[in-house]
Known about the structure:
This protein is α+β, with helices and mostly antiparallel strands. The protein has five domains: 155 residues, CATH 2.40.50.140; 193 residues, D-amino Acid Aminotransferase, Chain A, domain 1 (2-Layer Sandwich); 81 residues, DNA polymerase, domain 1; 87 residues, DNA polymerase, domain 1 (Orthogonal Bundle); 68 residues, 3-Layer(aba) Sandwich (Rossmann fold). It contains 25 helices and 24 strands. A five-stranded mixed sheet has the order 2-11-10-3-9, sandwiched between helices. A five-stranded antiparallel sheet has the order 14-13-12-15-16. Strands 5-4-7-8 form a four-stranded antiparallel sheet. Helix 1 runs antiparallel to helix 2 and helix 12 crosses helix 13. The longest helix has 24 residues.
Amino acid sequence: MNSEKPVEELSAAEAEAELARLAEEIAAANTAYHTHDAPEITDAAYDALKARNQAIETRFPHLKRADSPSDQVGAELAEGFSKVRHAVRMMSLANAFEDADVTEFDESVRRYLGIENTIAYTAEPKIDGLSLSLRYENGQLVTAATRGDGETGENVTANAREIDDIPHRLEGAPDILEVRGEVYMSHADFEALNTRQAERGGKTFANPRNAAAGSLRQLDAAITRDRPLKFFAYSWGELSEPLGETQMEAIARLKSLSFDVNPLTELCSGLDDMLRHYRAIEEQRATLGYDIDGVVYKVNDLTLQRRLGFRSTTPRWAIAHKFPAELAWTRLEAIDIQVGRTGALSPVARLHPVTVGGVVVSNATLHNEDYIAGRSSSGEQIRDGKDIRVGDWVQVYRAGDVIPKVADVDLSKRPEDARPYEFPTVCPECGSEAIREEGDAVRRCTGGMICPAQAMEKLKHFVSRKAFDIEGLGAKQIEMFYADEVLPIREPADIFTLEERDTRNLARLKNRDGWGETSARNLFNAIDERRSIGFARVLFALGIRHVGEAAARLIAQHYGDWETFEQAMEKAAPLEGPAWDELMNIDGVGTVMATSLVTAFAQEAERASIDRLVAHLEIEPAEQVQAAGSPVAGKTLVFTGTLEKMTRAEAKARAEALGAKVSGSVSKKTDLVIAGPGAGSKAKKAEELGVEMIDEDTWLEMIEGL
């Protein structure tokens, strides 16, 4: 599926393949940006990927992946920091790119709330820095944590204490106060820092955002002390008492507590005022002295914010209106092929380094062989049919801080000896045939685990933070053990036999370069700690194609325990029957994911590898969502007809917050139907099946006070 084909022209099969590609690219971009502070693509490119993903999901809602980028926040944590679990999750923001998107946001807010009149919003610059949460207890700063994956961040308390803008003690603050904001570096301080770094022979930074993030995430706080970091406060997490009744009042309260708040924050009366302030800020952008990449709008009334609530990763009451993308021209020096853990052959453009939007770019994605050839997967032209060749002068597009992509080619500068690129039909890593299945945009190596690139990438995924997260066994160690002839790790089960095999060898791990008695013992202990592990982590760690972290949690919660899940996958192997239907009826599981999952357990070699691993593990049952005192926790609800006291979206959100599952259709598994005026076929189906049915007033009485 070519990424240039308009969403409205995609077939269902093409859309499913495109969602898979987008999930991979966005995940890689998140890791580069959030984990390594080294973005590989621009913010605009990232935003474009997210926007395309959202557009496809909107047109094909039944194809939304359980590991959809729409449901992800941030990325895994870097090594070296202890973890801090946020008392209140740190969310990301939905994006708007055009005035029409802001109009739709305003309309969606009023539609959700059932309000026709104008709503007041705050508008403030979106600082391009690193999100930070500061927790104060009884006026004292006790912890500072990065956003991380939204639920858990890195403990950078010692470093935060070195930032002048962050007070150590507050007078008159609530007993518990989590202040959230952005750590950033001014342009002047950034230039001065790079000058000092160059004079010392140290590392220089590509842009102020990277400099700020790298400076805050230092294991030595003395380095942070030497860096000129600043902090703007704009939000809050856990509170023991409210800061005010409106966003503006709360921001004013933070200012009174000695926090710097952005002076360009303004109260806007409706849509026209919001767009006016956006343009006013955009005009000042170059002279602010620090980087911003848009304007954030928030519903001012905090009561309305609470009613609006949250989607899976973003608040309904706020949106980021981003500034336009940036472009640059440079020479394409080479095209390399990388092989991923699913066997995908991904072409990467090696570019003569060029600065795009303040970031030096030397690599860019070329997506797939069709994109290089100047056509879509259906044979239609893109870029007016211009192909991409080594030596070409190419336009690099960077949207947001995501992976850059090659957007266009200047044929007038094409070298005379430039030849069309021939995409490989064999894997460059193992020599196996690389095939492209019908409907797939990607050519894949058929070597499976005999392909060293696939095997190694699968193992790296297996030990990653969100999978088994084995202390001391990261990507570098996996590469070492994979190549080792004495103590090889070639599949996940080998990790859990490592100590046993080590005791039988003369060349013990503790006697090798880079290892010792303590480090070897620590590794073995860390491996033992992971012999008992949660169901969802195991499933995610297997690296089954199309089964991401969110999908693994969803599936684990549905089946409960590993044994039940394995039996269900065996029964679903014909891709039909009750077990298959049950898998397909899980909200968020589509045909592609279900087929991939069942196939993994049906293939003899892969199943044997899984069984060898499971034999070493105690897999803990999935945690079930609990909602204390909720009469609908664990039940499946259906809303039908016209709701008069709250919108359908608000009712669904309330039900899910109380631990219920909300379905769009009535079946034997439905526990309760809430029917308003005009209820039709769903109410009739409920009556036929004997499902309990109540009206909206009874529903509101049921959840009152919860």
